[in-house]
Predict the structure.
Amino acid sequence: MAEARLAECSTTALVVIDVQEKMVPAITTRPPDQILGSIERLIGAARILDIPVIYTEQNPRGLGPTDARLRPALDGAEGPLVKSTCSCWRDEGFRNALKRTEREHVILCGLECHVCVAQTALDLLRVDYLPFVPVDAVGSRTSMDMEAALERLRRAGVQVSTTEALIFELVERCDHPKFREVLRIIK
């Protein structure tokens, strides 16, 4: 059985994968506004806690840019890193950006869970990173694809969780100096 691990603020980076204008409306596993809201909460918490944020775009000429609702939250993040690979790790620009963070825990959110998110998570495991996937901040076009991906990721050792659970892991304590600020994002 895979070892359960907690996300730690000082060792975590956040990666927002391919949340692009033409993909968002195709997602059916949960309402896109809910997925975007979870991603916005993750980005907001990362900002407050000084966690590096990286975001990618897959073939933006075909799939469009990052969804307009996320762009303000991503202002100042590293990206968009344009890639043609499904796994972010297989793109040299992404690999270099992630290595520069010097973080070993990686929260992955975005689209699609069974393609780019899953392949990135599996590659990160292979090269000794610890990936976390919040189920409410990822989506796919079909439930079957997403469920199969999440099961595969769990079995491989990826830490599958939720946005709120991960944010509380990062804050860790109710007497954290930024606890109240982060709490406002969750509520």
About this structure: The mean pLDDT is 95. Strands lie at 12-17, 53-58, 78-83, 105-111, 130-134, 138-139, 159-161. The helical segments are 32-48, 60-63, 71-74, 92-101, 113-126, 143-156, 163-171, 179-186.
